[in-house]
Write a structure and sequence with these properties.
Structural class: alpha/beta
Distance between the termini: 39 Å
Oligomer: single chain
Mean pLDDT: 89
Largest sheet: 7 strands, mixed
Number of strands: 15
Order of helices and strands: HHEHHEHHHEHEHEEHEHEEHEHHEEEEHE
Helix content: 25-40%
Amino acid sequence: MLKIVSELKRKNSDLKEAEIEGILHILNSHDSLSNNELIRLTGIPKNILKVFKSSFAAYLYDDDTDTIQLNSKGKQLLQKENPRPYKWTLLNFAEPGLLDLSQRFRQDYEQLSKREFDQFYATPQSSVSKAMLLDEKGIIEEKSIALIGDDDLVSLLLFNLNARPILVSVFEIDPALIGYINGVKNTNLVKYQNLNVVCYDARKVFDRQNIRRYDAVLIDPPYTVSGIKLFLYRSLQLLKGFDTFEGKYIFLNFGAGLRNPEKETKIQSIINAAGLVIEDKINKYTSYTGAETIGSSSSIYVLKTTPFTNASDQVLNNKIYTYEKTELEKFPYVDHIVIKVQDVPQKIITSKTALQLAFGRFCNKHSLKVVDTKITKFKKQGYSFTYILANSNLTIHTWPELNALHIVLVTCSPVHNKERLGQNISKLLNTSNLEVNFVE
């Protein structure tokens, strides 16, 4: 590892060593860059880039502009060290003809992105990559495809591949985008005859003729929990019957930034609750103009339905856009864990002292700070223990006659050493018969 990379790593804990070397390679390869250009090249959020620049300030020109440029000391250092490049995303497609077309579409459509719809336009290259990913998955030829929102004009690119869809429907809320896509369609009705554009707000129900009609759905929802839940549910409404193991596809774009892993965890929980399989997840797949707080990029989740996919209605919040700042988005991260334990020895399960000792040690092992305790004894010798924690609560109920107990742990921050919960309970209660379930 380069010495300068090791030094920078100590001040940039959010970045991997390989990413730091990759940034140095980019700086060494360009005379100057703007902050936003470097964000788009790397997918690194602006707050993390700010820390990096501060830690590398001795090797950069010190000015008040938006430019990042090596000074003579920095040029000398990096020419000597010759840092290696870093592959910021694991997959991207190169198709010059399609890229030229995508660039023309973006140049022709000169509307500013609308923040009331959480719009950020993807780069032309990212639009091409979205279209070609569907082709690589084999779900364009003779397939029906829906897009809930099409800021990136991917629908038009799908008709310029070798594979030919039988239907592409765009469900779009923005009148300007609807007008532009229809305008392109009208200039070449032969090529785009199977393109259907519908004025649609995802907070409203679909018309019946659109339900269960499509093989795949593309979504780039608002980056709120309620927005993703709603768009996923609408996608499941659009997909054809998924009661076979062949499965139908949802392509979900989502970006959180490096310092928001709890958002990624919530999204995975939503996906799991819907009974969808994450067939692929490609980090930093889509690059945007703007959205610097999430590194001007989002990951793409390739989701596949199963016979166990749950398309039933959920509790949905109509406040789906980030500007609305809903209380749901402020709701803290929650770990909700249920543990069922059997075959607990009588000398432990009938003893208040033994149980207190066991769960005191349990709290210490998992950094659970107890601020209050309530113990209730029942006529049949059973106990209920309630621990009020600094970050939520822990409850235990015992059934001595069954040598069993039930544990519920709810915390508003990730549980320390979560992977050892079962192992620790097993040792403390002297039993190997237990079941750990993660509810959220």
